[in-house]
Design a protein that fits this description.
The chain is mainly α. It is built from 13 helices and no strands. It has helices at residues 3-25, 27-38, 42-70, 72-91, 96-124, 127-155, 162-165, 167-181, 195-214, 220-224, 229-249, 263-283, 285-291. The longest helix has 29 residues, at 42-70. The protein is globular.
Length: 307
C-alpha cells in the first residue's frame, strides 16, 4: 500500500472511531430531552449510556477475533452498518425499550470499529509509523468528549433524534470508503474458535457492568450484599479465574495471557481504566448542569448560569 493510500485509510479509520466515540459523549446533552419524551426517571435514563458501554465491552473482543478470521474489511463494514442501523433505530424509537435496543445495536457495531481500526494499523503501517498512527486513533476519545457536548448543543434545538440521524451519512461514506481501502487479508487459522473463552469473557464483563450499574452508592455496603448486585459480583470472581484457565489452554484464545505479562502493558491498562472513569463521568455533566444548576438544555456549549 502506498503512503497516499495509508493516509486515506488512516482518515477513514479516524472518522469511524470518532463516530463511535461521539455516541458515548453526545448522549449526555440528549438525556434531559429523552427523559421528558419517554417519561423516565434518572435511573432509567442512565441505562441509555450503560447499555452502550455494556454491549461495547462484550462486542470488542468478539469482533476483534472475528476480524482475525473473516478479514478486517468484512468485519469493519459489517460493524459500521450495524452502527448505522442502531442509530436509525434510536432516532425513530417509539418506546424507551426500543431506544435501548437501538443503543445496543450501536454498541455492537462500535465495539468492532475500535479494535479493527487498531488491527488494521498494525497490519498496514510499518513499525516506525505505527505508534504515531495508533496515538492519533487513541486521541479520538479525548476529542470526542470535547466535541460531544458542543455538537449536542448545536443539534439539540432541531430535536434530540438528530444527534443520532447525523451518523447515517457518515456511516454511508465509511462503508463505501472502507470497502475500497481496508485490506481484506484473511489468514488461515486452523484452530477452532474459542467459544468457551468468549462465553466466559462475555458473561464476566456483563456481570461486572450490570453489578456496578445497579450498585447503590448511597449505601454501598448493604448494596453489595443485596440482590442482584451481590450474586453478579460473585459471578465475576468465579468467571475470571475460569476464563484465565481456559485461555491458557485454548489453541486460539480470545485473549492471550502472555500479552498481559509485561509491566508496560499493565501500566497502560491502569491508565486506560482511569481515563475511562473520567470520560464516563463527563457524560453526565450536561444532565447535572440542567437538573441542578438550571442551565438551559440548548446552552451546553456555554454552560451559562441563569441570572
Amino acid at each position: 500500500m502506498s503512503d497516499r493510500d495509508r493516509k486515506r485509510l488512516l482518515g477513514v479509520l479516524f472518522v469511524g472511531v470518532l463516530m463511535g466515540a461521539l455516541d458515548i459523549a453526545i448522549v449526555g446533552p440528549a438525556l434531559p430531552a429523552i427523559r421528558a419524551e419517554f417519561g423516565i426517571d434518572a435511573r432509567a435514563a442512565s441505562w441509555i449510556f450503560s447499555v452502550y458501554v455494556l454491549v461495547n465491552l462484550v462486542s470488542a473482543p468478539f469482533m476483534a477475533k472475528l476480524s482475525d478470521r473473516w478479514g478486517r474489511r468484512r468485519v469493519y463494514v459489517l460493524d459500521v452498518a450495524a452502527f448505522a442501523v442502531g442509530s436509525l433505530a434510536v432516532a425513530l424509537a417509539p418506546t424507551y425499550w426500543a431506544l435501548l435496543i437501538g443503543r445496543a445495536l450501536q454498541a455492537l457495531g462500535a465495539g468492532g470499529i475500535f479494535p479493527v481500526a487498531s488491527a488494521v494499523i498494525g497490519d498496514v503501517f510499518p513499525p516506525e509509523r505505527r505508534g504515531r498512527a495508533l496515538g492519533l486513533i487513541g486521541a479520538v476519545f479525548g476529542l470526542a468528549f470535547l466535541l460531544g457536548p458542543l455538537l449536542g448543543g448545536l443539534l439539540l434545538p432541531f430535536g434530540w433524534s438528530w444527534l443520532f440521524l447525523i451518523n447515517l451519512p457518515i456511516a454511508a461514506w465509511l462503508i463505501f470508503a472502507g470497502a475500497n481501502l481496508v485490506p481484506d487479508e484473511r489468514p488461515d487459522v486452523p484452530a477452532p474458535f474459542d467459544v468457551a473463552g468468549m462465553i466466559l469473557l462475555g458473561g464476566g464483563l456483563t456481570a461486572l457492568a450490570l453489578g456496578l450499574s445497579l450498585l447503590d452508592t448511597a449505601r454501598v455496603g448493604a448494596s453489595l450484599a443485596s440482590w442482584p448486585v451481590g450474586p453478579l459480583l460473585v459471578a465475576v470472581l468465579l468467571l475470571a479465574p475460569a476464563f484465565w484457565i481456559v485461555e491458557r489452554r485454548a489453541a486460539d484464545p480470545i485473549v492471550r495471557p502472555s500479552l498481559l505479562r509485561p509491566l508496560p502493558v499493565k501500566l497502560v491498562l491502569l491508565f486506560a481504566a482511569g481515563a475511562g472513569v473520567t470520560e464516563a463521568a463527563m457524560v453526565f455533566l450536561p444532565s447535572l448542569a440542567v437538573e441542578t444548576l438550571g442551565v438551559a438544555a440548548v446552552s451546553y456549549t456555554h454552560l451559562t448560569l441563569p441570572t
